[in-house]
Specification:
The structure holds two protein chains of two kinds. Chain A is 26% helix and 21% strand. By secondary structure, chain A is α+β, with helices and mostly antiparallel strands. A three-stranded antiparallel beta sheet of chain A has the order 2-1-3, with helices on one face. Chain B is globular and about 50 Å long. The chains are: A alpha+beta, B mainly alpha.
């Protein structure tokens, strides 16, 4: 069985994927993960998760290029520039 | 040598020699994960040996390195159990499980010691040994009933009894669930110890007094 190991470096920080462990059961996975990812005091905590418990989600189609769904969908810079010109004020950096 | 120094040296020698023996699996353990884990456990044991030697060295007005490497093999106080060269996984796990079980009894005694330094160090070691015991127990559960493993336990059982003083052996027999037999005592050393000592002290003997 393969177990995915997530590692928290400091208290309060998010867990990040550290790597995987091939082990016969959860008990072995825990013992091996402990030594593999904790022996150097590099971890505050670990999550050891059977790979099969992870639902992998991918493929996010955007066939119609709906840029307004995206963070970078609007170019605020250009719009701001226009607005400033209309109002007759300069950008804060320009004065 | 005071009774305290003698006791510290016995345990330090056990931990140093066992750490050395366990490290012989580095690179050839049954799986990559076990290789890392067992090597880490070996390093922990040697770390415990260092702390124990440092405490003993203060009493004996010497240094941990001198105690670890400059004594003649005949002066080591290690139990024959830890000296055996066991490059068979069934034997290694049998020894690991037997030793950790005996060591737990020994640490329980030391933690209750009136000597605050000894009790404090024993408590620190026990925090790490708890995970060695978990590791040993999980392997033992997996190999239990396996013919090679069970015969390795039978073979090493008299050696395991020799780790502890006579009065603690009935408790070990109870935990291991085997009848008490004649123990292989600390007085004697195995031939394997001398070979291991040659290797272990090779660098130090090549340039006496060198520091780096």
């Amino acid at each position: 069985m393969v177990f995915e190991v997530f590692r928290q470096e400091r208290r309060g920080q998010p867990f990040a994927h550290a790597g995987s462990i091939a082990a016969p059961d959860l008990e072995f996975a825990e013992a091996w993960a402990r030594e593999q990812y904790g022996r150097r005091q590099e971890s505050e905590a670990l999550w050891v998760v059977p790979r099969e418990s992870i639902r992998a989600v991918h493929d996010f189609p955007d066939e119609l290029n709906k840029t307004y769904h995206r963070v970078n969908g609007y170019s605020l810079k250009a719009k701001l520039k226009e607005a400033r010109e209309r109002a007759g004020t300069a950008a804060p950096g320009d004065c | 040598v005071s009774e305290r120094a003698q006791q510290l040296l016995e345990i330090a020698d056990d931990e140093l020699i066992l750490g050395w023996r366990d490290s012989e699996w580095t690179g050839i353990a049954p799986s990559l994960e076990e290789d890392v884990a067992f090597s880490s456990i070996a390093q922990n044991e040697i770390g415990h040996a260092r702390a124990l030697y440092e405490l003993a060295a203060r009493d004996l007005d010497t240094t941990a390195d001198e105690l670890a490497f400059d004594r003649d093999p005949s002066e080591y106080l290690s139990a024959p159990l830890v000296e055996l060269r066991e490059l068979d996984w069934a034997h290694t796990i049998a020894r690991h499980w037997l030793y950790e079980t005996a060591d737990e009894l020994r640490l329980e005694r030391l933690k209750a010691s009136a000597d605050a330094e000894v009790a404090g160090l024993a408590a620190k070691m026990d925090r790490e040994e708890a995970y060695h015991r978990m590791h040993a127990a999980m392997w033992r559960d997996r190999l239990r009933g396996n013919e090679r493993f069970e015969s390795a336990v039978d073979e090493l059982w008299p050696y395991a009894l020799g780790v502890l003083p006579a009065e603690e052996r009935p408790a070990l027999a109870e935990r291991i669930r085997r009848p008490e037999v004649d123990a292989v005592e600390r007085e004697g050393h195995t031939d394997e110890l001398r070979e291991l000592w040659q290797e272990m002290t090779m660098v130090r003997r090549s340039v006496p007094g060198a520091t780096w």
